[in-house]
Amino acid sequence: MSASAVFILDVKGKPLISRNYKGDVAMSEIEHFMPLLVQREEEGALAPLLSHGRVHFLWIKHSNLYLVATTLKNANASLVYSFLYKTVEVFSEYFKELEEESIRDNFVIVYELLDELMDFGFPQTTDSKILQEYITQQGNKLETGKSRVPPTVTNAVSWRSEGIKYKKNEVFIDVIESVNLLVNANGSVLLSEIVGTIKLKVFLSGMPELRLGLNDRVLFELTGRSKNKSVELEDVKFHQCVRLSRFDNDRTISFIPPDGDFELMSYRLSTQVKPLIWIESVIEKFSHSRVEIMVKAKGQFKKQSVANSVEISVPVPSDADSPRFKTSVGSAKYVPEKNIVIWSIKSFPGGKEYLMRAHFGLPSVEKEEEEGRPPIGVKFEIPYFTVSGIQVRYMKIIEKSGYQALPWVRYITQSGDYQLRTS
């Protein structure tokens, strides 16, 4: 069982929307949430779950809103948080930006959605594409009386409508990997992992069945093939359309896809990743006068690949002023409100090495306390490349009408939480 009630509050804790699903949590109970939140924050003991008497508040913050679910029982917290984040996703699909104003302007639709999203504490239809079939944007013009229940609500395949037709049948597959990396000042890798997602954009007629094949190590072991070019996927999470029993039996990813964009699966690999962009920095601080920073960046990925939109964020002292820069490529700018220099490189080929020098003035009075030096952050995107070596080996499309369809595959590696410590 999930939540007894769901509330949406503004930044002051005033309820904008409340939906009581079981009637066992009084409206007055939500008045205790904000004082409790402030108190815990002041004590440094803030947690995503707060309790007052018999009532448990499970909350998330999005933009200038608090979404709070309440329960009197020992509910499945993971399910409740998953529901709250899914609610944010659905509202964002409807209103583009989920803000206090969008809630006030669309409260009729919000109540309609909350009625469909959960019933008597149980999550129901949470797919925005299906909800949009029968809950329209015109909240004040919603018809009363007879209402048509779309077939997708009662179908075995609730995420796809019947009768979809396209002149050209295509599937676009994006394999996107984010590299999380933390390197200490000595150059040792402290944290290294790859978080990947496979996203699909489906333009297929009818009710097709798709089968996706990857170079999955477990599958290669089952079929007796070489493991050399295979990858071992961990923490695999699938969209609800995937037949999990089939995957458990023979590692086949078989599914009837939703129409349009969706995330098919996500995975993680805890593997030692060689830093794709290596950063070295030298900082010389001349007492009472100036500081000079030299940063060297090197692309440690294959030469035929190119990193695009590279941004290297270099921390500088909070009292620095009068910036001057010299770069061998790209441009540098000082962002004083964040105490960083951002070195931007539009195109960074593998194997190349570039330099950036920065000169700052310092006030004549030296600060008494030595500041801690934050790490250097790096952002980048490398198309046509995956650091793990994952590959889409095939995509089979089976539909009773027998049409031919083209699958298109694109690989992208990008930075996740990518930091290099300098001290």
Automatic annotation (TrEMBL):
It is found in: Cytoplasmic vesicle, Clathrin-coated vesicle membrane; Golgi apparatus. It is a peripheral membrane protein. Keywords: Cytoplasmic vesicle, Golgi apparatus, Membrane, Phosphoprotein, Protein transport, Transport. SUPFAM superfamilies: Second domain of Mu2 adaptin subunit (ap50) of ap2 adaptor, SNARE-like. One of its GO terms (biological process) is vesicle-mediated transport. Residues 168-421 form the MHD domain. CDD domains: AP1_Mu_N. It comes from the Eukaryota. InterPro entries: Adaptor_comp_med_subunit, AP2_Mu_C_sf, AP_mu_sigma_su, Clathrin_mu, Clathrin_mu_CS, Longin-like_dom_sf, MHD. It holds the Pfam family Clat_adaptor_s. Gene3D superfamilies: 3.30.450.60, Mu homology domain, subdomain B (2.60.40.1170). PROSITE patterns: CLAT_ADAPTOR_M_1, CLAT_ADAPTOR_M_2, MHD. Its main location: membrane. One of its GO terms (cellular component) is clathrin adaptor complex. Belongs to the adaptor complexes medium subunit family. Subunit of clathrin-associated adaptor protein complex 1 that plays a role in protein sorting in the trans-Golgi network (TGN) and endosomes. The AP complexes mediate the recruitment of clathrin to membranes and the recognition of sorting signals within the cytosolic tails of transmembrane cargo molecules. PANTHER family: AP COMPLEX SUBUNIT MU. Adaptor protein complex 1 (AP-1) is a heterotetramer composed of two large adaptins (gamma-type subunit AP1G1 and beta-type subunit AP1B1), a medium adaptin (mu-type subunit AP1M1 or AP1M2) and a small adaptin (sigma-type subunit AP1S1 or AP1S2 or AP1S3). Interacts with P2X4. This is AP-1 complex subunit mu-2. It comes from Rousettus aegyptiacus.
